[in-house]
Amino acid sequence: MEKLISVVICSYNHGIYLPETIRSVLNQTYSNIELIVIDDKSTDNSSEIIKSLIPECKQKLSNFIFIEKDENKGVEDSMKRARGIFKGDYIFPMGSDDVLKPDAVETLYNFIKDKDEYGFVGGNAEIIDSSGKKCYWDDKLNLVYNDKEAKYKTWGDLTKQVAKKLNADFNSDNFGSYKSLLLSNYIVNGYMFSRKAYLEANDYYDCIFEDWYMNLEIAKKYKFKYIDKIIYSYRKHNKSCINNTSYSIPRYYTTLMTQKKYCEENNLIEEWKKAYKYPIGEEEEKFINNFLNNKLDRQTILNTALLIVEKNKQIHKAGKFRIIKKDSKLEKFLKSILKLVKKNKK
Predict the structure, then answer these.
(1) What is the C-alpha to C-alpha distance for residues 304 and 333, in angstroms, rounded to an integer?
(2) Do residues 87 and 95 make contact, with C-beta atoms less than 8 angstroms apart?
(3) pLDDT tens digits for 11-46?
């Protein structure tokens, strides 16, 4: 009997794409699928769209769960909820605007089903635009539609270049190694984790890149496998989170901070420092750690971030060196934290 696969869709303001996304799960060649859709308090018609598809989902799937959150808390919170309820032997996360190829689940399952040493298996992804038209990336990652103008015809073409520089060739045993993933999350969307590996990993924190974080957690114990086949369509459009620096920058740093203790204990701190790239002071590091460990209430986080930013301005006005370089990633991190806390302040 086929094992149960749990597909998780974290939905936020992608109502226009949800029918295609959800139906790509319903139309899989693999039949034993549980679908969990978690809507993160969308402000568009996402919830209504999902509800309209419930009869179709219940008819075609082994199990269907829809969770409608009462406040917007981010994709990491949605994945934390899914982690607590999914029933599958494997879990397949996907974006609420992306599309699965019909044999995506079957392709990945056929590899990993009898290989306990693997915690991860993934495939390649093509690129589509907001209308669903296949496209490519040029050398500056602009969308192009003529393959002769393309530098990267798939997402894998791009990340293979990154991984190769890290001695993590996609066809080598070093693919998905912890050390290489620490320096870059070169994993292409369209993958699944084994239940055992996924639940052994530490739970999600707030304000992280949840995919990079979980890849790192699983790479501590398990092997990764890449299958060179397009199983996923990744939608690139102006509203993609990857384009939003106020979203990306704090998550980059907080994700790395979750790994610092492990790196210190496993003689990987030099690699961690390379990934962090910019030095920070003890005060700033303590602030970020406390933010990660939920030891600060929102007002304290706001006050501390303001204090650091203001201190930086005062020192600069006095004609001394800035404690934070202008336009550095740390300065952007702090400004992003301020924006994040102000937005969610109760």
Answers:
(1) 13
(2) no
(3) 999 999 999 999 999 999 999 999 999 999 999 999
